[in-house]
Amino acid sequence: MALSAPYRKIQRLLSEWLEGGRTARRQVFAIRATIAALDALDRHRLSRWLAWWCVAAAGRGKWMLGRIERLDPALGASTEAALSGLPFGVDASVVRHHRKSA
Fold first, then answer.
1. What's the rounded Cα separation, in Å, for the pair 52 and 30?
2. Fewest 10 Å CB contacts: which of 22, 76, 78, 102?
3. How far apart are CA 83 and CA 63, in angstroms?
4. How far apart are CA 65 and CA 90, in angstroms?
C-alpha cells in the first residue's frame, strides 16, 4: 500500500499536534489546509488512524477525541464513526469519558 504525500504530511502534523502541549495558530492552519487537500480514501484512512490513536491515548489517560472535534468537526465525526468500526468494537464513550478510580 502506497500512502500519498498529503496523507503522510497530515499524519506527521497531527501526531505532533496531538502529542504536543501548546499549539501555535499556524500549526492548526497548516493542519486544516492539509486536511482539505485529502481525497476521500485518505480521509477515511486518516479517520481510522485517528480512531486507533484515540484508543491508545485513552489507555494512557489522555482524551483526544474532543481535541480532534474542535480542530475539525467533520474529521471528529468520522473518527467517532471509525471507532465503532474497529475490530474489537470500541465504543466512543471509552475514549470520550474519563473514569476515575476509587
1. 22
2. 102
3. 14
4. 13
The pLDDT-based confidence of 61 (bands split at 50, 70, 90) is: confident
Grid cell for residue 92: 466512543
Is the pLDDT at 98 greater than 60? The verdict is no
CA 84, CA 35: separation in Å to the nearest integer? 22
Distance from C-alpha of 78 to C-alpha of 35, rounded to nearest angstrom: 13
**pTM as predicted:** 0.79
How would you class 18 by CB atoms within 10 Å of its CB: exposed for 0-12, middle for 13-18, buried for 19 or more?
middle
